Amino acid sequence: MSELLEAEVWRERARAARAVQDMAGADRAIAEAARLAPTDPLTAFLRAQSAYELGHPAATLFAEAVRLWPENPDALRNHALALASEGQLAEAEAVLVRALAARPDWLDGQRVLASLRFSHGDAETYDAGFAEAVRSQPRHQGLWLGWFTLRAQQRDWPAARRILDAAAAQLGETRPLAVARAFLASESGNLAEAQTRLAALTGADDEFLVLCRIRTALRAGNAAAARDLALPLTATRLAGQVWPYLSTAWRMLGDPRAAWLDGDPVLHGILDPGLSTTELAELAALLRRLHTASLPYAEQSVRHGTQTDRSILLRHEPLLGTVRARLMEALRDFVSTLPPPDPRHPLLGKPRGGLQISGSWSVRLGAGGFNVTHSHPVGWLSAVLYVALPDDPGPAPAGALQLGAPPSELGIALPPYAVIPPRVGQLVVFPSILWHGTHPFAAGERLNIAFDVVPTSA
Question: What is the CA radius of gyration of the chain?
């Protein structure tokens, strides 16, 4: 067997190990593939990616992958991310700036550059790459919309409006720009303008537009319209995004299906994964070392704090492996107590034969910190482990997790189903499609691990 063919066998073993989240086994397999085929571009990229996801130094490995596979933008992007994760922010920016000078319309590169700049403290000029790109390619609509999205994520509505005006001066009032203007009007609080703009948008709705219509209907207090828009989408790939809006509409209408969907009492669990005081203290110290950013990424729900990148529970540190095993055991026990299967239900209708982490991260909040209300469209169950908490967060409900209350920007006065004060070592689990957020606290540090799981088999 040739070395390339043997390397492919090891790559396949790595893929099989990753499928069951045996990340260490996958790393060993791909390292063997790299030993057999050291100049194979795909193997070099996978070797770097494996090291990066495990939390090992990976910048040098990605640099080699880029050398072997220069036309692969993912290798270039991840080289920059690896450099940043190893404290080499200037070098990370330089990698992206050089690439974008040659190709300003590389949208993913522009997004990552802006995100790195913002998360490391540049909240003013983080989007300068987009500004430069549209000067060189003023008729590139994707660049304009990417730039608009960055400012909209920060709810910087004046800047977002200026971007759309400048785009229209170059492109005319295209349909994508008209959709963006309707979104801007709705999210910035100009309901009458939003309704007028949405009514003028005829033809098939894309995902972005239909969600804008649902949110605008709820803002207008038209729960029936929101329900009628959302209900058909529960049978599509947008289901995870629309279920929480449908819950809100049903609650506004007094429809008993809200209780069917969310549970009565609300589906959730407060669990003890059995971590000792010593383990929690060691975990807190480890997590603090991983919080290297200055600000949260623009698209995240974190306010006055930071969130780690990559899947933290799949990293190489033995302590995180121990924590992961305890958390998954606790979740399996919780799943065994769920109500009987209901094939129509987005949570209860799923198989319960196994669980797999679909994403995990740590959040570290400081004084005044909180998570804005949101949901997790691609998860099944979501959970949060409290690792460290302020000695005195302030009067209740300071620092508490709330479940079920819709986002405040919708202007809907529905109370939460539950308000759960955090406790160190406690694990709270709830359906991923349930609205959830946290209350600000006065002072101190709030440190957690949050994660989503999905079922793996019947």
Answer: 23
| pLDDT over 70 (residue 143) | yes
Q: What's the distance, Cα to Cα, between the start and end of the chain in Å?
A: 38
Q: Which amino acid is at 117?
A: R
What secondary structure letter does DSSP report for 154?
T
- Give the Cα separation of 19 and 12 in Å (integer): 11
Bridge partners of 270? 428
HSE, side-chain direction, 13 A CA sphere, residue 262: 28
pLDDT-based confidence at residue 303 (cuts at 50, 70, 90): confident
**Nearest to residue 261, comparing CAs of 249, 238, 240, 243?**
243
Instruction: Fill in the amino acid letter for 311.
Output: S
Residue 301 has pLDDT above 80, yes or no: no
Give Cβ neighbours of residue 147 (< 8 Å, ≥ 6 apart). Answer: 127, 130, 131, 134, 163
Using DSSP, how many helices (H) and how many strands (E) does the chain show? Answer: 18, 9
Cβ atoms 17, 30 nearer than 8 A: no
Residue 418 sits at φ, ψ, to 5 deg, of: -150, 145
The two tokens of residue 306 are 């930071």
Please tell me whether residue 301 adopts helix, strand or coil conformation.
coil
- Report how far apart, in Å, the C-alpha atoms of 98 and of each of 58, 72, 129, 308 are: 20, 15, 11, 26
What is the residue whose two structure tokens read 């995902």?
207
CATH number of 269-455: 2.60.120.620
How many Å apart are CA 197 and CA 183, to the nearest integer?
9
For residues 358 and 452, give the distance between their C-alpha atoms in angstroms, rounded to a whole number: 6
Selection from 453, 303, 450 nearest residue 380 by Cα: 453
The answer to whether the CB of 3 falls within 8 A of the CB of 36 is yes
Residue 374 carries which DSSP code?
B
Residue-wise pLDDT tens digits, 58-68: 999 999 999 99
pLDDT at 458 over 80: no
pTM for the whole structure: 0.94
Cα–chain-centroid distance for residue 453?
Answer: 13
Letter for the amino acid at 297? Y
What's the rounded Cα separation, in Å, for the pair 185 and 425?
A: 43
